[in-house]
Amino acid sequence: MKYDVKKYPLISNAEIADGIFDMHVEYDSNALPVKCGQFAHVYVPSKTLRRPISVCDVENGVLRLVYQVKGEGTKIMSQMKSGETVDILAPLGNGFKIEQGKRYCLIGGGIGVPPMLYTAKQTQNPLVITGFRDKSLVILQDDFAKAGAELVLVTDNGTAGTKGFVTDILREKINETDEVCACGPTPMLKAVAKVCAEFSKPCQVSLEERMACGIGACLGCAVKVNIGGEEIMQHVCKNGPVFNAEEVVFNG
Amino acid sequence: MKYDVKKYPLISNAEIADGIFDMHVEYDSNALPVKCGQFAHVYVPSKTLRRPISVCDVENGVLRLVYQVKGEGTKIMSQMKSGETVDILAPLGNGFKIEQGKRYCLIGGGIGVPPMLYTAKQTQNPLVITGFRDKSLVILQDDFAKAGAELVLVTDNGTAGTKGFVTDILREKINETDEVCACGPTPMLKAVAKVCAEFSKPCQVSLEERMACGIGACLGCAVKVNIGGEEIMQHVCKNGPVFNAEEVVFNG
Amino acid sequence: MADLSVKIAGVEFGNPLIAASGTFGFGKEYGEFYPLSALGGISCKGITLKKRDGNPSPRIAETPSGMLNAVGLQNPGVDVFIKEDLPWLKQQNTVVIANIAGNTFEEYCEMAEKLSDTDVDMIELNISCPNVKQGGVQFGTSCEGVGEITRQVRKHCTKPLIVKLSPNVTDIASIAKAAEDGGADAVSLINTLTGMRIDINSRRPIIRNNTGGMSGAAVFPVAVRMVWQVSNAVKIPVIGLGGITTWQDAVEMMIAGASALQIGTVLFTDPYAPIKITEGMQKYLDKNNISSVTELTGTIRPW
Amino acid sequence: MADLSVKIAGVEFGNPLIAASGTFGFGKEYGEFYPLSALGGISCKGITLKKRDGNPSPRIAETPSGMLNAVGLQNPGVDVFIKEDLPWLKQQNTVVIANIAGNTFEEYCEMAEKLSDTDVDMIELNISCPNVKQGGVQFGTSCEGVGEITRQVRKHCTKPLIVKLSPNVTDIASIAKAAEDGGADAVSLINTLTGMRIDINSRRPIIRNNTGGMSGAAVFPVAVRMVWQVSNAVKIPVIGLGGITTWQDAVEMMIAGASALQIGTVLFTDPYAPIKITEGMQKYLDKNNISSVTELTGTIRPW
Ligand SMILES: Cc1cc2nc3c(=O)[nH]c(=O)nc-3n(C[C@H](O)[C@H](O)[C@H](O)COP(=O)(O)OP(=O)(O)OC[C@H]3O[C@@H](n4cnc5c(N)ncnc54)[C@H](O)[C@@H]3O)c2cc1C
Ligand SMILES: Cc1cc2nc3c(=O)[nH]c(=O)nc-3n(C[C@H](O)[C@H](O)[C@H](O)COP(=O)(O)OP(=O)(O)OC[C@H]3O[C@@H](n4cnc5c(N)ncnc54)[C@H](O)[C@@H]3O)c2cc1C
Ligand SMILES: Cc1cc2nc3c(=O)[nH]c(=O)nc-3n(C[C@H](O)[C@H](O)[C@H](O)COP(=O)(O)O)c2cc1C
Ligand SMILES: Cc1cc2nc3c(=O)[nH]c(=O)nc-3n(C[C@H](O)[C@H](O)[C@H](O)COP(=O)(O)O)c2cc1C
Ligand code: FES
Ligand code: FES
Question: Given pLDDT bands bounded at 50, 70 and 90, which one contains residue B252?
């Protein structure tokens, strides 16, 4: 039996930036080991569909989910209190493929930043580029620092770190790294993929799609990928969320 | 403006017998005075319809609702905790007509007992007959005693108080009283009404019906009553919940 | 501040929110919460030619995110309505819509005639009440039936005429077209979706009428779909309803094609819903620099 | 212990719970939670003659107590199904139902013929997929269409034949009757109710296909009503589905007239739902001294 749903005791659920919450739950990572880039499918009381949230970190028996309040589901999540339990189906998806000996450039945009923390911890001396719209949305900088990453912060409006886009930094520094992993809004992923193609660096991107089952049974979360010249449908929950950037048909 | 919906701070919500809860909320009875026999229409998070619950008591700025967990709505109510607020539309309905100088016999069966407490407090030296299926369901005996009522307890199986039905006691004691008020399951109300008719005592009964609006607009909670020989439809929420027993068409 | 007023068949509404028939009685009760002028209009409880007692209880059941009802058109009859309820309603400074149901063409026509002689603002033809055999539903589910009854009533009706449509049909767009062709000035949709719940202990349907009409948030996606299909098929204005619960739902329904809205079931959850919804719409319009709510209607960008 | 097994058209099911087509793929994924023998049967993802990519994303939207989907019959085609999925499925010790959809009579017949030569246990005719023009929905919404396609497929099909009905119709009982008259061994209902949601910011339908099929708890009362109406109209067994979420719902659906059940959307909320529902039914039957679940079917006591 590969999958399991469990009720995990909620340890804390604090607002760490404007509308962004950091949920800690008790988690036995020996029983259910997590790869970086995998996600948790979180049951939200009174909702029909679970919410997919990337694993931000797993350490010392604590699983961290960092999420932004977007609609009703994440709103309800944000009101959960320690002492309650959280019903989670995890870990799901393929995760980033990390090879020893490579230097990675990890790029997170906005709420795409959290999965990069656990990824940073699985790689050696990574270059982490984090981008946000505004300083009020900046998260996890201390955690990346502690993880020993070379850390760059950019904001669209220059209110924190350097003013500009993650790709500005990427262009500057891409040749200091061997491979790029990115998570964030689609326009950002497209731009990152373009830079990587230009510099002939391999690039993995983590995609989002609306999900029902989370395990590949309902075919709800389809994305078009081009594998060896043939366009086929794959599923973010099972074949992804991480795809080779060059295979993704972004306008599909 | 006669009606208002307010969020009342929840003070406590304790289980006082098997599956029966006693909810206390802060309530300003000067602003919204309550008559005995009136009810509160309680919003239950995630539910479309409010739940009608009789006022059990109002005293010192505290409104008490005593309710039994039946289905999903009362289940959710029972999980509310002090510190939360309860969204209540109250007071609704007509309530019992209490005249000074009369001695009342107040009869409660099962979860029909709670409204009789506030009623007892509005009357002088009432005779209160409370009936339950089993001792595990007995509630509010101390409160009635404190209210100065002459109190009789019966259970169907004799596990507490006298074994028997409320009507057994009623027959014995009806002539010590001037008028009867009753709340409980329909078969009990019918039986009480029959005894009262026999002894020519006026009798008021509090009825239940599934409700939507609670104020007489949707015509959802209809009961048939016979007024002056003509059968007409009235509504539990607006014309009731209290009706003259002799006017109720019990099989309607 | 954005203009919330809308005009349907020549009738001005202060805002697009109309209380849905049967959920608001003749206005008196909710008038104890707020002045009825807070609403664009009121569609009164469905009235019939003669007084009706309605169905026996239980008439109400809860369902996931919704409810069933089978009130069965309890009402005092059109004459009592005209004499006792209409005068008060007309003083409330809101549009008054008479919702009528009948057994026969003649009954509908007679009521339309009587109401045309009053100062009621509009007439809504209820040919879709699923809860009584005589609720006109026999007319409401075929194009021929809808076309014919609209044509007949039209002849006897000098007031703007709304035809209210049942969602329990295969092809709502054709039905709406039939109403338009029959002379309707507007259509309103959806009435309730027929449903049933059974008490597993007694094995009895919870609703005494066996089946009931489903309303509330659960039906909203069906209503949006139908409003979109209908507004693509007809030129007359569409009044959208069915499950509107939040101001976002109200905006969504207008984007789908509605020129005005009705709300019903949400009143039972929160009597103040109309106030909250209009406030929410007002803020949304102002924030997005939309000067009139009418600019939302039908602005959906289908794929 | 009460007997949970049921028999439909001669096929034995260990319990009445069947996974609904399209929610369970070809079983592999949920087979990673529990042995598939925990289910009475599996209705496989809808298959077509040729491979289909399905609709573009988004294909999923949430609705109050339910969801919309417009997957659009993504599947590898009947030949690949027979070669690659069926052999594994047949080892899982549960009834395997092939759910088929097509553009034309010929396609349906060809698939039925191919599948009749395999060891699939039953065939379910999907003539009600609202999400693709070629989902057979043109056959599924008229009595003539349903009667004719059932008759045609029947000729080419040696397996027990289930016809799956669309709820988006005026008169479900007549449609079911047409399927029965056409030679169906059973009917299953309901497929999804067509609905729509719009993103009020982009004014785009959330589902790329514009409309989608609504399923989940929200539709349960409609499903119960239709199962009741259909089971009063036909003599063949009725498989009830649409919004079953708890064991109480399962019992209610059987009381309404279902001989077996399918569950879909609830799996997304709780993958273990089938286990919990069968356990709940078992306890209910034992507590009420009912020796076989078949004793529930159609025991509704209408008013
Ligand atoms: C693999 C994956 C990983 C993710 N990781 C994170 C994360 O670490 N932190 C975080 O804040 N967000 C993450 N998201 C996005 C997150 O799932 C959505 O923001 C969330 O589901 C919105 O739910 P809601 O109820 O607040 O919004 P609503 O709009 O009310 O949701 C309605 C429905 O749409 C779905 N939905 C809405 N937006 C998205 C979206 N962007 N992606 C997928 N489904 C969506 C919801 O799941 C729900 O089914 C991730 C998404 C995916 C697919
Ligand atoms: C005027 C009045 C006063 C009441 N006072 C009390 C009280 O003081 N204490 C108490 O425990 N109960 C009281 N009840 C009954 C109480 O309202 C129901 O037990 C409760 O609504 C059940 O809700 P549920 O969600 O738990 O059950 P569910 O069965 O899940 O409810 C489903 C729907 O049916 C309605 N419903 C179910 N049973 C009843 C019922 N017996 N009467 C009315 N509606 C019902 C619910 O309100 C809801 O709309 C009163 C009812 C009325 C009409
Ligand atoms: C209790 C109740 C009574 C109703 N009575 C009527 C009626 O008399 N005439 C009518 O046309 N519609 C009637 N309806 C249908 C509503 O007007 C409306 O079409 C339906 O409830 C969907 O809207 P909602 O989801 O906002 O409630 C009634 C609905 C309810 C809930
Ligand atoms: C994601 C999804 C895909 C579906 N695909 C199919 C399908 O391929 N064939 C089919 O007959 N029904 C399909 N359905 C409909 C279901 O089989 C079922 O009829 C419907 O979902 C109602 O049941 P439920 O409420 O238990 O989900 C699909 C439903 C969902 C949610
Ligand atoms: S969510 Fe079901 S296949 Fe991805
Ligand atoms: S509940 Fe609406 S009239 Fe009584």
Answer: very low
Q: Which residue has the tokens 């949305």?
A: A137
A92 three-state secondary structure:
strand
Residue C302 lies in a domain: no
The count of structural domains within chain D is 1
Q: What is the CATH number of the domain that holds D262?
A: 3.20.20.70
Separation in Å, CA C166 to CA C13, C77, D18: 24, 23, 32
- b/e code C190-205 from CB counts within 10 Å (16+ = b): bbbbbbbbbebeebbb
d(CA A167, CA A185): 13
Using the atom order of ligand 3, give the atom closest to the CA of residue C20. 17
Domains parsed from chain B with CATH numbers: 4-92 (2.40.30.10), 96-205 (3.40.50.80), 207-252 (2.10.240.10)
Q: Which atom of ligand 2 is nearest to the CA of C67?
A: 49
Contact D267, D30 (CB under 8 A): yes
Q: Which ligand is nearest to the CA of C45?
A: 3
CA distance to A7, B32, B35, B251, C213, per residue, from B97 (Å): 52, 18, 9, 24, 37
Question: What is the tens place of the pLDDT at every residue in D100-119?
Answer: 999 889 999 999 999 999 99
**Is residue C202 in some structural domain?**
no
Are B151 and B128 in contact by the 8 Å Cβ rule? The answer is: yes
CB-based contact C64:C11 (threshold 8 Å): no
- Domain-embedded: residue C127: yes
* pLDDT > 50? residue C96: yes
Distance CA D247, CA D6 (A): 16
* Separation in Å, CA D205 to CA C174, C244, D65, D123: 22, 17, 19, 34
Contact A227, A189 (CB under 8 A): no
Which of B50, B89, B219 is most worth mutating to test chain C (most C CB atoms within 10 A of its CB)? B219
> Residue A49 CA to chain centroid, in angstroms?
20
**Confidence (pTM):** 0.96
Report the C-alpha gap between D53 and D189 in whole angstroms.
Answer: 26
The ipTM assigned to this model is: 0.96
Pure H helices in B122-244 = 141-146, 166-173, 186-198
Measured between alpha carbons, how far is C167 from C146 in angstroms, rounded to an integer? Answer: 13
pLDDT single digits (tens) B16-70:
999 999 999 999 988 899 999 999 999 999 999 999 999 999 999 999 999 999 9
Instruction: Number of A to B CB contacts under 8 A, please give it.
Output: 3
Say whether residue A73 is in contact with chain D using an 8 A CB cutoff. yes
Q: Are D166 and D137 in contact (CB under 8 A)?
A: yes
Whose tokens are 């520094």? That residue is: A173
Tell me: cis bond preceding D162? Omega within 30 of 0 counts.
no
Domain that holds residue C122: 6-54+72-193+213-296
Residue C227 lies in a domain: yes
- Closest C-chain CA to D245: C64
Tokens linked to D126:
């999907």
Neighbours of chain A (3+ CB pairs under 8 A): B, D
Say if residues D238 and D230 touch (Cβ distance below 8 Å): yes
Q: In 3D, which of C170, C164, C266 has the Cα closest to residue C215?
A: C266
Nearest-atom number in ligand 5 for the CA of A219 is: 3
Q: Is A250 helix (H, G, I), strand (E, B) or coil?
A: coil
Residues of C in contact with D220 (CB under 8 A): 63-64
Chain C residues whose CB is inside 8 A of the D217 CB are: 64-65
Q: HSE on the CB side for C153, CA within 13 Å?
A: 37
Which of D60, D142, D170, D174 to mutate to test binding with chain C, by most C CBs within 10 Å of its CB?
Answer: D170
Residue C246 burial (10 A CB sphere; 0-12, 13-18, 19+) = middle
